[in-house]
């Protein structure tokens, strides 16, 4: 959130216990805002210590956030949103995999938790904005509308996982790390200067609610075994699996086919069918996607103009950009054509459209179109 005439805001700073959110809260306080820190207790069974945990939901993280708030000199609270997180993020994650799709829980968390449940509670308590340590920028246009843009440090840009935010949510979002020319190394140096001992704390990664990083094991405990076949594009049985949910489009390792393909080349997961519980594999060329249809579009600020238009698109959190032509059909369906074929695109993933550095919006991939192979 920016303004031509900065005013003192009541800001609720979401503090995960990491260096980014701590510095973001410190910057907001230094800017003169009335800042209160809050740590979201999202795990119903948090680990006491970070050993073996890779996310940001441990008790240790809560303690780290509290110590950072003490150094900054701001009030601090812990809010229990574990039940809401389980329903909106964890249960959705499991259901999506069970349906043969590949979800992104970080987008879901931003949409349903940090900028819905948390923001709604903050506004009800009289706060003006929610502050997070995301690397992204909110720009206020002359007419008062807001735009979401990429961060100055492209290596840490997180606008992809914020592509689900709408105009109302952007109006109450504050991203102090993305509004300045800065890198992650400089953020750590700044944290050290401020006396924040989290300056050297490793970044969280992977999925926060899967402590050991074993997604397949996490799903197996909740969905059980469901034996099925691994087949080639012609339907010939090549092997078996214990659960189609354990595979993702584009996966190469762990296929357990048992013997090489006739051409001696590796095989990749091409399709996951929950209907007949089969996993289809084939050559890498068969992963080429030329277009897709996406549903549930959400626009960051003003919606796109009518008719087809050229954008760049990002298909995963740490992926690059690719040029596309996209058109909104009937207000509910986004049809996208790629200028050059892309690989590893799976239903359930989010596609985020950009106009330069501006985030146009996000939609959930429903179906993909593949390029026909010669001789196939």
UniProtKB/TrEMBL annotation:
It is found in: Cytoplasm. It holds the Pfam family tRNA_Me_trans_C. Residues 217-282 form the tRNA-specific 2-thiouridylase MnmA-like central domain. InterPro entries: MnmA-like (IPR004506), MnmA-like_C (IPR046885), MnmA-like_central (IPR046884), MnmA-like_central_sf (IPR023382), Rossmann-like_a/b/a_fold (IPR014729). The record marks 134, 349 as: Interaction with tRNA. Keywords: ATP-binding, Cytoplasm, Disulfide bond, Nucleotide-binding, RNA-binding, Transferase, tRNA processing, tRNA-binding. GO terms for molecular function: tRNA-uridine 2-sulfurtransferase activity. Its main location: cytoplasm. It is an enzyme of class 2 (transferase). CDD domains: MnmA_TRMU-like. ATP binds at residues 14-21, 40, 133. It catalyses: S-sulfanyl-L-cysteinyl-[protein] + uridine(34) in tRNA + AH2 + ATP = 2-thiouridine(34) in tRNA + L-cysteinyl-[protein] + A + AMP + diphosphate + H(+). Residues 156-158 are annotated as: Interaction with tRNA. The active site is at 109 (nucleophile), 208 (cysteine persulfide intermediate). Its EC number is 2.8.1.13. Catalyzes the 2-thiolation of uridine at the wobble position (U34) of tRNA, leading to the formation of s(2)U34. Belongs to the MnmA/TRMU family. PANTHER family: MITOCHONDRIAL TRNA-SPECIFIC 2-THIOURIDYLASE 1, TRNA 5-METHYLAMINOMETHYL-2-THIOURIDYLATE -METHYLTRANSFERASE. This is tRNA-specific 2-thiouridylase MnmA. It comes from Streptomyces bugieae. The gene is mnmA.
